[in-house]
Amino acid sequence: MEIDPGQIIRRVMMTEKGAMQREQGKTGPTYYFEVHPSANKITIAHAIRAAFGVDVACVRTMNYGGKRKRMGRYEGPRASWKKAVVTLKPGQRIEQFDEV
């Protein structure tokens, strides 16, 4: 069963830390993505390869629990989400994100 990469990759996270790691690039360029909570490292790597046409060297994932927030006297949770740190092989780049 093939899953659409657009369902796995929710958005690209452009952060200062990510930009610094991309510039240093000791192990290869690093990009941050918000991904579907049930995606594993293998499906994330396949989705990145299919969407951007690059070779993935390493994928690290982190789960973030939603915080409790208040609006006046009402309280409710924010959504939980998952972050993937994708390191590409040396010499590989995603041109769209390096220009921003």
Would you mind describing this structure in some detail?
With 100 residues, the protein is of the alpha+beta class. The chain has a single domain, classed as 2-Layer Sandwich (Alpha-Beta Plaits), CATH 3.30.70.330. 29% of the residues lie in helices and 36% in strands. It has 4 helices and 6 strands; from the N terminus they run αβαβαββββα. The strands form 2 sheets. The chain has a 4-stranded antiparallel β-sheet. A two-stranded antiparallel ribbon has the order 4-5. The longest helix has 12 residues, at 41-52. The protein is globular. The N and C termini lie far apart (34 Å). The mean pLDDT is 88.
Layout: helices, strands, pairs:
Elements: H1 5-8, E1 9-13, H2 16-24, E2 30-35, H3 41-52, E3 56-64, E4 68-71, E5 74-77, E6 81-88, H4 95-98
Antiparallel strand pairs: 1-2, 2-6, 3-6, 4-5
The tally of domains stands at 1
Output the radius of gyration: 15 Å
Low-confidence stretches: none
Strand percentage lies at 35-45%
Termini separation comes to 34 Å
Mean pLDDT: 88
Roughly how much helix do the residues carry, as a percent range? 25-40%
CATH classification class: Alpha Beta
| Number of DSSP helical runs | 4
For the biggest β-sheet, the strand order reads 1-2-6-3
Specify the biggest β-sheet.
Answer: 4 strands, antiparallel
CATH topology: Alpha-Beta Plaits
The helix-strand sequence is HEHEHEEEEH
Assign an overall shape: globular
CATH superfamily: RRM (RNA recognition motif) domain
Please identify the structural class as seen in this structure: alpha+beta
CATH architecture: 2-Layer Sandwich
Total count of strands:
6
